[in-house]
Amino acid sequence: MSERKTEVLAVLSRLADAWNDGDAAAYARWFTEDADYVTFFGMNMPGRALIESSHRALFEGPLKGSKLVAGSGEPKARFVRPDVAIVVSGGGSSPAGGKPEPGRESTLTYVLVEEPEGWRVASFQNTRVSDPAASVA
User: Fold this and answer.
1) For the chain, how many structural domains are there in total?
2) CATH code where residue 26 lies
3) Which residues contact 124 (CB under 8 A, 6 or more apart)?
4) What NCBIfam families is this protein classified in (predicted)?
């Protein structure tokens, strides 16, 4: 694995650590100041400050004690420029830290940019994994 890919994937690991610690400030720190964070239900939370405040509410409320867990397979990382990486991975959350609960598995897409202080997430999208055929009656 290249050094740059290792650096990019380390950011995802630090995001998971901050989430698992319930630390909204540490979680938000890994996003650019003007990041876009698109939730699994399609809401865009623009900017680091909103990412932090919304996650603080989640960590103190409905997602208190939840743990991020990796999906199956390795994250796919590719560099569209030396300072811009796109990562697609699987994952989800679990109150117990085990496998994602049914209905909580997601495909996660990150766009990371290299800034003077290191790699940061400029855009994130969480898309729930579902079976479209199951919704067709």
Assistant:
1) 1
2) 3.10.450.50
3) 31, 35, 36, 37, 38, 108, 109, 110, 111
4) SgcJ/EcaC family oxidoreductase
Q: What are phi and psi of 57, to 5 degrees?
A: -60, -40
- How high is the pLDDT of residue 100? 59
DSSP string, 13-38: HHHHHHHHTT-HHHHHTTEEEEEEEE
Domain holding 18, by residue range, is 3-129
Q: Which amino acid is at 38?
A: V
Q: pTM for this structure?
A: 0.89
Q: CB neighbours (10 Å) of residue 54?
A: 16
List residues bridging with 128 in a β-sheet: 106
Render the burial of 84-99: b for 16+ CB within 10 Å, e for the rest.
ebebebbbbbeeeeee
pLDDT attached to residue 69 = 82
Residue 2: how many other CB atoms lie within 10 Å: 9
Backbone angles phi, psi at 85, to 5 degrees: -125, 145
| Residues in the chain, pLDDT under 70 | 1, 96-102, 135-137
